[in-house]
User: Fold this.
Amino acid sequence: MADTKNPRRVGRCSLPLPSLSSKSGRPSARAMLTAWICGIVFGGLALEMAGASNVFAYDDYDRECHQPYAGGSNYFYPYYTNDGLNPPGTLYQSSFDAARLDWNNTPTPVWFVSAVQPNWAFGAKFLGLNGKAGLTQYTCGGSGGAMNTAHVWENRTYMDGDSVFHKQAVASHEIGHLLGLGHSYYTAIMGYNDGSFNGTLSDDWCGINHIYPNSLYSPQCGY
Amino acid sequence: MRAYWQHRFIDVRWLSLLLVLLAGGLLGFAALKLVRGADGSTGVHVTDSRITFPSVPRLAEASDAIVVAVLKGERKESVFEPAAQDSQHGDTRVDVVRQFDPIRAIKGDRGPGSIEVRWTASGHYELSPGNFDDEQYDPLSLKVGQTYVLFLVKANDPATAPYWGLAGEPGIAELRNDDLYFKTTAGYRGELAQHGVSLGRAEAPAAFDVNIDMVAAAAR
Assistant:
């Protein structure tokens, strides 16, 4: 039988330290079983902590990666590099420009700063027939875990044949991901879109003002 | 001598305990990795945006072609996509290429003979040199010999010949007694559940519980 008088505990898992061993000094079957279960739990928790995200009306995928760039006390200034060469001579560049301006004009502290940052780009490429209109990739290797690399892609596989109107909708949506928003349950550029609009709506602004609290803008969301 | 071996024996037991703990951790890690899908190999975080349709009329409108066809077989094909600015750092993806024998065209001109339809099963996407993420997509499990209704778009990708692919989700349905039973990915169904949308008789919302005549009417 295992001696369980003084197990050291982490959460509900008893760590298999010597107090769990039998009198003979070797671990008991129970200790082995506990170790196995705890190992599974801790292994799982480690991954959960690495990729955890809370779910709101507007999901926040950006919990472990801090805001891309904060250059002022009242405003939030993410970098903006329109990768017009990728692809060259297409309508994606103007779509991203329009989407960026739309975000700048929202009642939120977001204001994109034009900067030549090779690791910070908006563009379009062929991502394949994966059922996805766009993809946003980023890394959190900056100071204090800040976002230091980000690419916002439209999937040319689907979007090349689509309208400029819809290209801008996808650009606005993916920029929302870049800012830390997930998919909304509501009618919004981050949520349900019947194809009649291609810019941000109030639910999108609420999400931003929730993630980046600012005295000038209140979320004013009733949910 | 006996004490020495007894001591070694105890050490071995403790070592085995440590190994069991590590194995458990790896198993837990692997299990969740399997559930979540493999991404972020180099710490790259990814969010993507699924193309979905709220109803059959909207799906039909977005489709370049709608075809009733029998699945004959499938193969996997690796595709390299050179980067526009730096061909050293292109992307690689694996497509499932499925061959269908059409038996009825409901919308569009899909050309003569059999038709090949692609669905991307995985992608290796470069973010920057040394930074990438590997995405695994649900390949949709289909049965050879089964009749399907395909909602297709035509893609013109310079890395391959022009090809047909599913318009989005839902984009393919089994046809049984003139009724459609849509096949969708676990990710799509998960998003529906998250939004409180329940499924109909198959793997799509009840709005997609239709028959082939209703599809034909929507495509007109």
